[in-house]
Please model this.
Amino acid sequence: MVLSALARGIGDGVEAATAQIAGAFEPVVRLGVTGLSRAGKTVFITSLVHNLLNTGRMPQLRAAQAGGIMGALLQPQPDLTLPRFAYEDHLAALQAPEPHWPQSTRTVSELRLSFRLAPSGLLGMVTGPRRLHLDIVDYPGEWLLDLALMGQDYAQWSATTLARMEKRPEAAEFLRLAYGTDASAPLSEPVAQGLTAAFTASLQAGHAAGRADCTPGRFLLPGDLAGSPVLTFAPLPPAEGARGSLIRQMARRYDGYRTQVVRPFFERHFSRIDRQVVLIDLLEALHRGPEAVEELRRVMAEVLASFRPGTNSWLAELLRGKRVERILFAATKADHLHHSQHAAFAALAEGMLSEARDRARFSGAGTAAMAIAALRATIEEDHPHKGRTLPMVRGTLENGRQAAFHAGDLPADPGALLAHARQGAAGWLSQDYANMRFAPPRLALAAGEGLPHIRLDRAAEFLFGDRLA
Ligand SMILES: Nc1nc2c(ncn2[C@@H]2O[C@H](COP(=O)(O)OP(=O)(O)OP(=O)(O)O)[C@@H](O)[C@H]2O)c(=O)[nH]1
Ligand SMILES: [Mg+2]
Model:
């Protein structure tokens, strides 16, 4: 294995080989954490790590319960060029005297948590405690959706993107520009920039309106690529173009984006993931209405398809048979609902996953859906209301005031909701849901207690509990 990685001679072959040598002695599990922006990745990782360092609230994590975890600590990560996940800063924000949510993060980052585990089996009596490294990698879900670009040339991508934009009001200005531009004319940089600006603005407006399919991903999160030619292109209707024409240049930059931005991400990060959690803000989609739910379903299928390498020959070659062993779709922020609604919420997430599996023709093995809250910001209350008891949650709003809400009734039959998602009904949750912007709770943690959560222990058990046992 070591030899083959070296022989392959890819950019990070040597690094991969070194990791494998180290891994031969100390096993590593690489956990990918993704989700569209604001899905809850940063809070999830912060709370997961805190709860693995302090396992008092992790009864459903078997190794923690059975005393198998003898110790855990943060260690220097193996990838020296990747930003470190700012665990301490994010935790400090949540534990501040005036707790606040961590800042939005825009790139990939990594953190290594190392466990000392009780010996297991007969051999363990001889070898003593084991070590296991959990490398957690946080990356934007938007980058995953860029995989679709790898299978399309510029003309195909332009056609599908323009068709998608036809129906969207926020894209009207860009479409007017795209159809009004002579793409066969020689490249003029201001024209290319103008098209790009209008295209980007339509993606941003779509994103702000809750659309989940705003790719290419780096147009929303450019980082240090902002303004570079690989981010200065836009889809155009078909045109004949000589060398140096606008359309030929656009195609060249699109190819540059694929080979120099998308490809390295899949090579460096994606291809090394063992376990994956995909966070979805299903409550937000429910609140926004059927179109948003439908879009989320499409994104879930697309995400699953990227984990089924058969779909994409380019990816299959990159992965060389390596598979992500477990994928969890976690519907986040379940603390907005009373526990009496959790079963219905989880059933909805499971229904969406099984739909996505069918669409992506993905076998069920190793996938699960759950309803969780990485950080519980509410407490529950029952209020009498019109002759029945209304289950509510109470928390501190971001303006410091206390408020109790009933998020609204979830559909009793998730099957019916999913079937009707395409018909233009209004959102399913009450209008009040929009006002449920809770601040993180003020915490008084006892020794050994992690941040309060909902079912984070079950999520951890599903994702990597087997490797701790
Ligand atoms: N009530 C509640 N709110 C949450 C929870 N997790 C996340 N949130 C809310 O969702 C927001 C986004 O969470 P983040 O963890 O920053 O999301 P992210 O996916 O890292 O977002 P980006 O870095 O912008 O991509 C937070 O600021 C909170 O308002 C949770 O468990 N409970
Ligand atoms: Mg983040």
Observations:
- The two ends are 26 Å apart (CA to CA).
- Confidence is low (pLDDT under 50) at residues 1-23.
- The chain has 19 helices and ten strands.
